[in-house]
């Protein structure tokens, strides 16, 4: 494929007819035959569910096991983010407030408690603060100093009562609780509820690797079993933390002279948040005579009974940017926080179950909900293997989102093939044909053990916009790896050359 042709393809917007630089199916029937041949050549075990629907007019083009209940993995995030746009709106912002129930005396002592009231905001971190994980806390500290506060007689209290106390779903993989993608959720959260670990390989193989904690905190105990490996060795690091423990054991390696940053989860994000805040205040000369506390261990009436006043706050970016993180980076923690936010707003209960009920009603309203028990939502992220949906349900949701006034904003949250960001940036590079049409493929990726998925939007070479869903459950093949199978199917759809299809006659 000549570079000039590729460059021209990558500059064309979705929906514009392309110049057909590669061969592709010239009819839906030919596309179906091409997909069937791909699957036959792989001779796979397991189930492959596929649904491809033309956007306008609404015509189903490919339907293979499209109504079969499937575990979606992170394609569950499509349900979460679509419902968030519908129930909360893309412009919603969340404000975390710093309150006190006391007054400042002549010596600069705050005679009372500092209360941090969580709003279900996942963004208090370095992600939206130029990489400085403590920037929000530093701004709060500056506000306290401006108020003349030099010490605090009471406690630093985290109020997380917007959400329930189910920090994880019971069906998550317990052996992976220390990994970043299994972070607990709380209405008061900080740094994705993780401690970042910056690793540095020693000068010679066999020596222990060094690490720095970000933020520096006593809250998490890290036991390192990470060794320095020779250059060229394959190295990974694995984080193991027992349920309800704040001791994490790290196994694995890092190359000589290499630096890498990973993240380990913490237990009780609320207590983690106020502990790090208290540590920051103490390091900068604001003495806290009390201690970090979770409001669940205290009497709310006693804390709030005498009234409060606001000292500082943090307002999140809009929900559209939160959903961008969810879909582009497949950020589980953000998705689970948003599902509980939906529950809190629609059902008055910040729980996984309440959020799922609200999402179910949304799907029913738009005509996407499968019948019976074919749709089950356990969490917002898709980490649970108990989630169930269908390929047709996902395409129905996507088609609905593409008809909304904020359709372009929702589309922009989806990774694009071989773009400079997102979970598809390294996909679709297997051949010139893959590269030529990669830019036409938008899709939310998904993976948990035994499950691979990709669902989103594709514009074919004739400019026909389509919604699609490809879900593999229990896939095994000695011929074709699962991601290659998904990519080949998506490329076949994108490379097709048929024009817009008329709806079937009634």
Question: What does this protein structure show overall?
Answer:
By secondary structure, the chain is of the alpha/beta class. The protein has two domains: 265 residues, DD-peptidase/beta-lactamase superfamily (Beta-lactamase); 221 residues, D-tyrosyl-trna(Tyr) Deacylase, Chain: A. The protein starts with a helix and ends in an 11-residue tail after the last helix.
* N-to-C span: 44 Å
The number of distinct β-strands equals: 20
Query: Would you state the CATH class of the largest domain?
Result: Alpha Beta
Assembly state (oligomeric): single chain
Classify the secondary structure makeup into a structural class. alpha/beta
**Shape designation:** globular
Tell me the strand percentage band: 15-25%
Radius of gyration: 25 Å
Low-confidence stretches: 1-18
Largest sheet, spatial ordering of strands: 2-1-20-19-18
> Could you estimate the helical fraction of the residues in percent?
25-40%
CATH T-level topology of the largest domain: Beta-lactamase
In CATH, what is the homologous superfamily of the largest domain? DD-peptidase/beta-lactamase superfamily
State the domain count: 2
Number of helices: 13
- The averaged pLDDT comes out at 95
Q: Can you name the CATH architecture of the largest domain? A: 3-Layer(aba) Sandwich
The major pleated sheet works out as: 5 strands, antiparallel
Question: What's the arrangement of secondary structure elements?
Answer:
Elements: H1 3-11, H2 28-42, E1 45-54, E2 59-64, H3 76-87, E3 95-100, E4 103-104, E5 109-111, E6 114-117, H4 135-146, E7 151-152, E8 156-159, E9 194-200, E10 210-214, E11 221-229, E12 237-241, E13 247-255, E14 259-265, H5 269-283, E15 287-288, E16 292-294, H6 300-304, E17 309-315, H7 319-329, H8 332-347, H9 352-365, H10 391-401, H11 407-412, H12 432-437, E18 441-448, E19 451-459, E20 465-476, H13 482-495
Parallel strand pairs: 5-7, 6-8, 7-15, 8-16, 11-13
Antiparallel strand pairs: 1-2, 1-20, 3-6, 3-17, 4-5, 9-10, 9-14, 12-13, 18-19, 19-20
Helix pairs in contact: 2-13, 3-7, 3-8, 3-9, 7-8, 8-9
């Amino acid at each position: 494929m000549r570079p000039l042709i590729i460059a021209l393809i990558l500059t064309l917007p979705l929906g514009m007819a392309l110049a057909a630089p590669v061969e592709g199916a010239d009819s839906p029937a030919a596309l179906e035959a091409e997909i069937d041949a791909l699957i036959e050549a792989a001779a796979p075990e397991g189930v492959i569910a596929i649904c491809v629907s033309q956007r306008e007019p609404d015509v189903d083009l490919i339907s293979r096991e499209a109504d079969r209940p499937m575990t979606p993995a992170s394609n569950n995030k499509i349900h979460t983010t679509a419902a968030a746009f519908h129930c909360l709106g893309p412009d919603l912002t969340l404000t975390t407030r710093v309150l006190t129930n006391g007054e400042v005396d002549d010596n600069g002592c705050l005679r009372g408690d500092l209360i941090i009231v969580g709003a279900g905001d996942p963004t208090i971190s370095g992600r939206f603060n130029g990489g400085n994980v403590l920037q929000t806390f530093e701004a709060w500290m500056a506000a306290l100093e401006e108020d003349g506060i030099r010490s605090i007689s009471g406690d630093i209290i985290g109020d997380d009562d917007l959400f329930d106390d189910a920090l994880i779903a019971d069906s998550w993989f317990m052996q992976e609780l220390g990994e970043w993608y299994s972070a607990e959720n709380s209405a008061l959260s900080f740094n994705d509820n993780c401690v970042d670990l910056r690793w540095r390989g020693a000068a010679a193989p066999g020596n222990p690797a060094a690490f720095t904690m970000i933020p520096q905190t006593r809250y998490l105990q890290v036991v390192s079993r990470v060794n320095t490996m020779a250059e060229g060795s394959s190295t990974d690091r694995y984080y193991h933390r027992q349920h309800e423990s704040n001791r994490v054991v790290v196994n694995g390696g890092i190359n000589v002279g290499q630096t890498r940053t990973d993240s380990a989860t913490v237990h009780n994000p609320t207590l983690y948040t106020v502990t790090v805040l208290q540590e920051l205040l103490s390091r900068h000369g604001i003495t806290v005579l009390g201690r970090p506390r979770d409001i669940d261990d205290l009497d709310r009436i006693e804390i709030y009974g005498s009234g409060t006043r606001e000292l500082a706050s943090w307002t999140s970016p809009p929900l559209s940017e939160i959903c961008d993180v969810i879909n582009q980076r497949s950020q589980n923690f953000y998705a689970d926080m948003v599902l509980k936010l939906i529950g809190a707003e629609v059902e008055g209960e910040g729980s996984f179950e309440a959020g799922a009920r609200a999402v179910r009603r949304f799907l029913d309203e738009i005509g996407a909900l499968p019948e019976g028990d074919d749709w089950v939502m356990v969490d917002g992220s898709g980490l649970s293997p108990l989630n169930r949906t269908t390929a047709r349900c996902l395409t129905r949701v996507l088609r609905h989102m593409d008809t909304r006034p904020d359709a372009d904003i929702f589309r922009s949250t989806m990774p694009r093939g071989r773009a400079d960001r997102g979970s598809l940036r390294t996909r679709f590079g297997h051949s010139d044909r893959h590269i030529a049409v990669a830019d036409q493929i938008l899709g939310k990726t998904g993976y948990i053990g035994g499950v691979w998925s990709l669902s989103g939007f594709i514009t074919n070479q004739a400019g026909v916009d389509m919604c699609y869903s490809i879900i593999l459950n229990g896939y095994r093949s000695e011929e074709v790896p699962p991601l290659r199978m998904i990519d080949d199917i998506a490329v076949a759809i994108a490379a097709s050359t048929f024009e817009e299809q008329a709806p079937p006659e009634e």
